[in-house]
């Protein structure tokens, strides 16, 4: 498959912008709130989160591009799942940091996990590489779920 660079960049930048917009509407002071919470074991420093999410959003954008460019008739459903999980991802930051709703963030991260798994299975049927590109995202979200649930239980 010949890479359509403009489309690839649109998918990556578009996905990164979802994360940036989510952070923007959440009100900032992420590390202050994060550091004020009782943390479960293995909680990383606050600076790691934007680094990881930037990498993961890029991988997600690349994976969505691969699905978008496929000729598979199932691509529309796969892209809808991609959008649904990305919307859940978008919601987590404002719920956790903006609203400071730990239980709400727990519900969102569980919904995210379900949607990410469904998306990966959908992507697997169309383009295995696009599915594999989301494995780091799935693993990080499992870790994020652990942290969210841990913080919720410890408060």
Plain-language structure description:
This protein is an all-alpha fold. It has one domain: Up-down Bundle (Ferritin). The protein is built from 7 helices and no strands. The chain has helices spanning 5-25, 30-36, 48-68, 75-98, 102-124, 128-132, 135-154. Helix 1 (5-25) packs antiparallel against helix 3 and helix 1 (5-25) runs parallel beside helix 4 (75-98). The longest helix has 24 residues, at 75-98. The model has no long low-confidence stretch (mean pLDDT 96).
Layout of helices and strands:
Layout (H helix, E strand, L loop, with lengths): L4 H21 L4 H7 L11 H21 L6 H24 L3 H23 L3 H5 L2 H20 L1
Helix pairs in contact: 1-3, 1-4, 4-5, 5-7
Give the helix/strand class: mainly alpha
CATH superfamily: TspO/MBR protein
Helical fraction: over 70%
Strand content: under 5%
Using only C-alpha atoms, the radius of gyration works out to: 16 Å
Reported for the largest beta sheet, the result is: none
CATH class: Mainly Alpha
Segments where pLDDT lies below 50 for 5+ residues?
A: none
List the main descriptive attributes of the protein structure presented here.
7 helices; Ferritin; mainly alpha; 155 residues; elongated
In brief, what are we looking at here?
The protein has 155 residues and is an all-alpha fold.
């Amino acid at each position: 498959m010949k890479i359509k660079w403009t489309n690839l960049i649109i998918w990556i930048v578009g996905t990164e912008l979802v994360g940036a917009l989510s952070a923007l509407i959440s009100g900032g002071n992420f590390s202050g709130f994060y550091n004020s919470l009782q943390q479960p074991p293995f909680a990383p420093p606050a600076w790691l989160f934007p680094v990881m999410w930037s990498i993961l959003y890029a991988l997600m954008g690349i994976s969505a591009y691969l699905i978008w460019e496929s000729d598979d008739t199932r691509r529309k459903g796969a892209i809808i799942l991609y959008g649904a999980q990305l919307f859940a991802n978008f919601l987590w930051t404002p719920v956790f940091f903006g609203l400071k709703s730990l239980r709400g963030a727990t519900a969102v991260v569980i919904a995210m996990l379900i949607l990410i798994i469904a998306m990966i299975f959908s992507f697997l049927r169309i383009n295995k590489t696009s599915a594999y590109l989301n494995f780091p995202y799935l693993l990080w979200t499992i870790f994020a779920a652990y942290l969210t649930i841990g913080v919720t239980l410890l408060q």
